[in-house]
Structures are given as C-alpha cells and as structure tokens.
Write a structure and sequence with these properties.
Elements: H1 3-15, H2 27-39, E1 43-56, E2 62-73, E3 78-84, E4 92-96, E5 102-106, E6 111-115, H3 118-124, H4 132-135, H5 137-140, E7 156-166, E8 169-177, E9 181-188, E10 194-203, E11 206-217
Antiparallel strand pairs: 1-2, 1-11, 2-3, 3-4, 4-5, 5-6, 7-8, 8-9, 9-10, 10-11
C-alpha cells in the first residue's frame, strides 16, 4: 500500500542529492580515469574561481578571490584568463594561437609579453593566480610534462569519502594528505572532470585555506580562444 509513496520519496531524495548512489570504484582507477579524461579530451572549457583565506594567531582571517576561464583545444589554441575581485586592472591573459605563438598581457603593467612555450607562460602566472594557471593545465598537458606534477602525484593517505553533489553534478570525493597539509577533491562521476578542490595548509604558524571551483562547459564559439588584451574589469 505504501510502496509507491516510498518509491517516490526515495526518487525525490536521490534527485535532490540527499541520497547518493553508491558507485564502487578503486582510488587508483579514479585517479587514472580522471587523468585520462583530461589527457584525451579534444576540447575543454571551464570557468571558476579561487577563494583563499589566511589566518594567523590573533589576527582576523583575510580572504581574497580570483575568477578565471580556461579554453583548450588539442589542435593547439589555448587561452587562460583571470582577474581579482574588486581590482579593475587585474586582468591577466595567457594565449596560444593557431600558429603556436604564445603571448601574455597583464592589466597591472599594461604590457604584452611573448614566450617561447606555453608552459613557461603558465608557470610564470602560478603565484599571482594562486596556482589556477596550472592546476588543470597540468592534466591537459600531461604529455609535455613541463608543468610538473599534478595535484594527485604528491598525495598520500588517500581516502574515498561519501559522494556529494557539486553544482548539480554527483561527484566522487577523494581526500589525501601532503607534507604541509591536506586536500579534498571532488570529481564528476559522469565525466571524471574535477569540480572542486579544498586545500588546507599550515606554514610557519599561518593557516591557509584555498578553495578551487571549476565549472566545465561546452561551446563551439571559437571566440573563447581569441587574445583580447587592453580590457578592464567592471567593478
């Protein structure tokens, strides 16, 4: 008598992410399939943000946020952009065109710079972008190897946690530790693309909490790959 109602209730809870399906997968398989998802992709686009919080004893926490976009094609074109919230001249662009010419432009100094390789340009922006310039590109350009190890390579004490919903995407949730702290990574069960990364570190008695949010999307618009310097951010 109550079976239809129970079935409908369970369906509702599942679709809302309150009850998540149990999808057994080994940690090694999860890491491997995530790497393959990026390395074998033909076209990858995302938008996202990084929120960094610093906390020192006796001082109120301080947070900063940057927003970014990534456009990758296995044919060669690439574009990465980021800006800091509340700073109109903070736009930073790294671009590689069809002819493999690599350029960057930063609103802070309003200068265009050329690089011999894309790896060099992305690595140069690691610090100012809170590693956003290389976090996903390390997966996309894994065959090149010039950007170094990705976030999985130094992790130890792996633990697969209960899946969670991130932006309506059911995700595997993988935790692990590093020499200076811990990390949790949310990976889409449907496409094995990373949706979120939380990193907690303590360095010289200062606590750092960094959250990366990634929203992959599809678009056939090649304007995503255009080099567009001399822009300011609307506040």
């Amino acid at each position: 008598m109550y079976a239809p109602k129970i079935t409908l209730l369970l369906f509702f809870l599942f679709t809302k992410g309150i009850i998540l399906k149990n999808d057994p997968i080994t940690i090694s398989t999860l890491i491997e399939r995530t790497g393959d998802a990026y390395a074998k992709t033909v076209r990858y686009l995302d938008s996202g943000k990084v929120v960094s919080t610093f906390k020192n004893a006796g001082i109120s926490p301080t947070s900063t946020a940057i927003y970014f976009r990534t456009a990758y094609s296995d044919a060669g074109p690439f574009n990465f952009e980021y800006y800091k919230l509340g700073q109109s001249n903070s736009l930073y662009i790294i671009n590689r065109d069809k002819k493999r010419m690599v350029q960057s432009w930063w609103g802070i100094n309003n200068k265009t710079r050329t690089y011999l390789t894309l790896d060099e340009a992305l690595a140069a922006a690691q610090g100012v972008s809170t590693l956003a310039s290389t976090m996903i590109p390390k997966f996309l350009f894994v065959k090149d190897g010039a950007l170094g190890l990705n976030i999985f390579n130094d992790m130890r004490d792996h633990l697969l946690l209960q899946p969670e919903m991130i932006n309506k995407t059911l995700c595997y949730k993988l935790s692990g530790s590093y020499k200076t702290g811990t990390a949790i990574i949310w990976i889409g069960q449907n496409d094995f693309l990373i949706r979120k990364i939380d990193i907690d570190q303590t360095i010289k008695n200062i606590e750092f909490h960094t959250e990366y949010f990634f929203t992959p999307y599809n678009s056939s618009d090649n304007a995503e790959f255009q080099f567009r310097p001399n822009r300011t951010i609307k506040l």
